[in-house]
């Protein structure tokens, strides 16, 4: 069985890329290491579809890892980018576009009383952690196992097993002296977090949490978990950082942590708010944010921060995010969930479940439930890889990794899902081969 995707031109591009780019890609999640094979190279995209360099269309269920909420190349965003670019790419000085996007964000998420633009989610969380340390005068940070907060040194830690331990770095090149300032707790485990704070609360600057975990598939907070996170942290004088780089403006217009009971001091955004351009945001209570230079002693800067073209793209994106967009995202997400569950059933693939929050779907080849990182790791990656390749061959682009979120966009229509039915059916047929 020789796969039909990637096509001949993708294969040629891959060979060239691999000779000059390390691993042929600029971000490891784009490589096909998790599913086998070599990546498809894309030439463009429009609406719900990506088109590869061989001219083949794919239903896009990666949505640039969540950034493309409106699908590919939404006309109003593209036109804002064109107009802004024609006026100058970067000034290295303030432009009104920065506060225009900031005001749009704050109108939807008033808890960002003051904010700062950076160029990635990584930078946003890294900076928020620095602010929390500056504000509290403490060094340690708590994260949850399976949570991804960008690739800054201290946050590339996961911990082995146990409720919370001094963690091992997930990456070579990260000094253990830095990772020892990161404490790792288990998602949805209030008791473990409380014990951790009982022992070390006095030295913890902040706890950073994805209100809905989106980097180990999709894992929703259990009832009471998020309120307990902020209660425990605040009781010990620590700050709470809500990492909404995925969830912000995807699950609703604004942030979701408040609605889920998490009281945050700092919030990070990225992905959607850049409208497809590189943007990250950190912000929060005015008193906390005024720690940042030039107002305060916490230094953070960026040559291309608040980039005019990116700001224009973000503003055009937010202007499109009406209630009807979120209704469509919800109904498309629900339709895809129903469709996939039905096809899995039909193919007698029983060890399969979907955990969905709106337009975010976690596809797990495990009976679950998935509530934390260890249960997420129970997913059968071999089965996912088979499912992935069968669907890819028939024009559906899923995340090339079993533990990533599948994202639907507002550009998708029921007809697009119907057209993908054969691909999903083939996916389950291949995934179901072999053991029960
Ligand atoms: C993607 C992501 C980041 C990192 O953002 P980049 O723009 O890739 O640096 C941080 N936090 C969360 C929750 C993310 O999903």
Spatial sequence of strands, sheet with the most strands: 4-11-10-9-8-5-7-6
Order of helices and strands: HEEEHHEHEEHEHEHEEEHHHEEHHEEHH
Q: Helical amount among residues, as a percent range? A: 25-40%
Distance between the termini: 22 Å
Into how many domains do the coordinates divide?
2
What's the CATH architecture name of the largest domain?
3-Layer(aba) Sandwich
> What is the approximate shape?
globular
CATH topology of the largest domain: Aspartate Aminotransferase, domain 2
What does this molecule look like?
There is one protein chain. The protein has 436 residues and is an alpha/beta fold. The protein has helices at 8-20, 75-86, 96-108, 121-136, 176-179, 190-200, 225-235, 286-289, 308-320, 323-346, 373-376, 381-393, 414-419, 421-431; strands spanning 42-46, 49-52, 57-60, 114-118, 140-144, 165-166, 182-185, 204-209, 239-243, 266-269, 280-284, 353-357, 360-364, 396-397, 406-407. Helix 10 (323-346) packs across helix 14. The chain is globular, with a radius of gyration of 21 Å. The structure holds pyridoxal-5'-phosphate. The site of pyridoxal-5'-phosphate has 15 residues, from helix 4.
In short:
The chain is an alpha/beta fold and 436 residues long. The protein has helices spanning 8-20, 75-86, 96-108, 121-136, 176-179, 190-200, 225-235, 286-289, 308-320, 323-346, 373-376, 381-393, 414-419, 421-431; strands at 42-46, 49-52, 57-60, 114-118, 140-144, 165-166, 182-185, 204-209, 239-243, 266-269, 280-284, 353-357, 360-364, 396-397, 406-407.
């Amino acid at each position: 069985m020789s796969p039909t995707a990637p096509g001949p031109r993708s294969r040629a591009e891959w060979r060239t890329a691999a000779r000059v780019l390390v691993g042929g890609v600029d971000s490891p999640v784009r490589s096909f290491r998790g599913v086998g094979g070599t990546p498809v190279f894309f030439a463009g995209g429009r609406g719900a579809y990506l088109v590869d360099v061989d001219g083949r269309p794919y239903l896009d269920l990666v949505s640039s890892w969540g950034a493309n909420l409106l699908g590919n190349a939404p006309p109003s965003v593209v036109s804002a980018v064109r107009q802004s670019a024609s006026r100058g790419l970067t000034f290295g000085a303030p432009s009104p576009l920065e506060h225009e996007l900031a005001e749009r964000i704050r109108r939807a998420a008033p808890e960002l009383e003051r904010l700062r633009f950076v160029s990635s989610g990584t930078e946003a969380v890294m900076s928020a952690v620095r602010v929390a340390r500056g504000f509290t005068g403490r060094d340690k940070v708590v994260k949850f196992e399976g949570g991804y907060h960008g690739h800054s040194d201290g946050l590339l830690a996961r911990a082995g097993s146990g409720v919370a331990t001094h963690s091992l770095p997930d990456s070579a090149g990260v000094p253990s002296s830095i990772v020892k300032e990161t404490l790792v707790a288990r998602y949805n485990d209030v008791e473990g977090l409380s014990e951790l704070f009982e022992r070390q609360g006095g030295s913890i600057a902040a706890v950073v949490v994805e209100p809905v975990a989106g980097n180990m598939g999709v894992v929703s907070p259990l009832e009471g978990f998020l309120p307990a996170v902020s209660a425990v942290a605040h009781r010990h004088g620590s700050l709470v950082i809500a990492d909404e780089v995925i969830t912000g403006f995807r699950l609703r217009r604004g942030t979701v942590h408040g609605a889920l009971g998490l009281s945050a001091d700092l919030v990070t955004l990225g992905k959607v708010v850049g409208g497809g351009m590189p943007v990250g945001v950190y912000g929060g209570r005015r008193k906390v944010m005024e720690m940042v230079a030039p107002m305060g002693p916490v230094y953070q800067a960026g040559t291309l921060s608040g980039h005019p073209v990116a700001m224009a793209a973000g503003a055009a994106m937010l202007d499109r995010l009406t209630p009807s967009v979120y209704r469509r995202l919800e109904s498309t997400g629900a339709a895809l969930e129903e469709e996939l569950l039905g096809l899995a059933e039909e193919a007698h693939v029983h060890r399969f479940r979907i955990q969905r929050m709106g337009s975010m779907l976690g596809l797990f080849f495990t009976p679950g439930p998935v509530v934390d990182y260890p249960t997420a790791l129970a997913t059968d990656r071999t089965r996912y890889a088979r499912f992935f390749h069968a669907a890819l061959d028939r024009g559906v682009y899923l995340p090339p990794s079993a533990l990533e979120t599948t994202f639907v966009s507002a550009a998708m229509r029921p007809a697009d899902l119907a057209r993908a039915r054969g691909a999903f059916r083939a996916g389950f047929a291949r995934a179901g081969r072999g053991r029960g």
